[in-house]
Design goal:
Blueprint lengths: L1 H17 L8 E6 L2 E6 L4 E5 L5 E3 L5 E7 L10 E7 L6 E6 L6 E4 L5 E5 L4 E6 L8 E5 L5 E2 L5 E6 L5 E6 L5 E6 L4 E6 L5 E9 L15 E8 L5 E4 L9 E7 L5 E7 L10 E7 L5 E3 L6 E6 L5 E6 L6 E6 L5 E6 L8 E5 L1
């Protein structure tokens, strides 16, 4: 009997690896030169799509929504396609297409029933995936990216016209409400997983004006703030970082909504710039840690259970996907790129 149980256990482990499902904390969704990769926490890699532009994992990690040019060889004149494909592979199911323009943002409703995307004329759409669903629902003009509340009832985005602030859309009624007004330009906003907070990027200061005819390519320096939906408070996130590292370039919530991880670095004309690091902080900023060691690390994501942070490290070539353990603070290599495909863009970890 014990031999039978051992054989079953070995078969189960083999099946788990074969289907591409990680055994210790989900799957990393990564883009590399247009290829969409699924990378396990053990470093195993599988190419899911050969050519893509945007991609988003479903909440259960079983499907990926992605956009691509119908004719990748002539993208300027190509129709853009939005499709959904199982992470196990198969034939993509076409959801929507744009004859002109391009998809600007992409995500899912928390229950996985619909794909949310910004498409035609900059409007936001909800595409229900049920067999009886009609055309995607147009919920009106949209500005920048979006974030869906954990219960799926609301969608937030940062707006800068005619006023600047956080605007929330009620999914059922379509009503929009400016819940928080600012006096500086906003860039992106994300609900916390518990729905009690919204973290958002905001301009700290604009670049200095040039004194001659030479154009100045320097962008604004961007900070991070957290707005409390219940308490109506709004606080700046301040990180203890090296001198001149004050430009927040990306951020993400921990699953328990108690921490943020962010990329902070220098303000440069290009991305990712001359120096960046990955940090984590509690909301009260009393507990902070520098996650990365090098001076070219970015795109941090919490693991599904919040026990680790994955990030891209390009301090030395080739690029690396790294893992930081929140308890031990140990850093381990997940996977290293090759010299031929020396690029990782970390999209999600679920």
């Amino acid at each position: 009997m014990s031999g039978f149980r051992t054989a079953n256990l070995i078969l189960l482990l083999f099946t788990t690896v074969a289907t591409g499902i990680a055994t210790d904390g989900g799957t990393l969704l990564v883009e590399s030169y247009g290829k969409l990769l699924l990378i396990g926490t053990d470093g195993t890699k599988r190419v899911l799509v050969d050519s893509m532009i945007l991609a988003a994992l479903s909440p259960d990690g079983r499907n990926v929504a992605f956009t691509q040019d119908e004719n990748p060889r002539a993208p300027a004149n190509s129709t853009q396609i939005l499709s959904v494909i199982p992470t196990s592979g198969g034939v993509p199911k076409r959801i929507a297409q744009l004859l002109r323009g391009h998809f600007e943002s992409l995500g899912w409703l928390p229950d996985g029933s619909a794909v949310v995307f910004q498409g035609k004329d900059g409007h936001l759409f909800l595409a229900n995936l049920s067999a009886t669903a009609g055309a995607p629902r147009d919920v009106g003009p949209w500005y920048q990216d979006f974030s869906v509340s954990p219960d799926g009832s609301k969608i937030v985005h940062a707006v800068n016209s005619p006023v600047m602030g956080l605007e929330v859309l009620d999914v059922r009624s379509g009503q929009r409400t400016l819940i928080h007004k600012t006096n500086r330009v906003l860039w992106s906003a994300k609900f916390s997983p518990d729905g009690q907070w919204i973290a958002y990027q905001i301009t700290l200061r604009d670049p200095p004006r040039t004194t001659d005819d030479e154009p100045n390519c320097t962008p604004p320096t961007i900070g991070l703030r957290v707005y409390s939906i219940r308490g109506k408070t709004d606080d700046a996130v301040r990180i203890v970082a090296p001198k001149d590292w004050e430009n927040v370039k990306s951020f993400n919530w921990s699953p328990d909504s108690k921490r943020l991880t962010l990329t902070i670095g220098t303000t440069d004309c290009d991305y990712p710039g001359s120096a960046n690091g990955v940090f984590t902080t509690t909301l009260d900023m009393k507990s902070q840690a520098r996650v990365s060691l090098g001076d070219m690390s970015f795109e941090p994501m919490f693991s599904p259970d919040g026990s680790a942070i994955a990030y891209v490290d390009f301090s030395d070539s080739p690029a690396k996907l790294m893992r930081y353990d929140m308890t031990t603070r140990a850093r381990t290599l997940i996977r290293q790129a090759t010299q031929e495909d020396n690029y990782f863009h970390l999209l999600e970890w679920k």
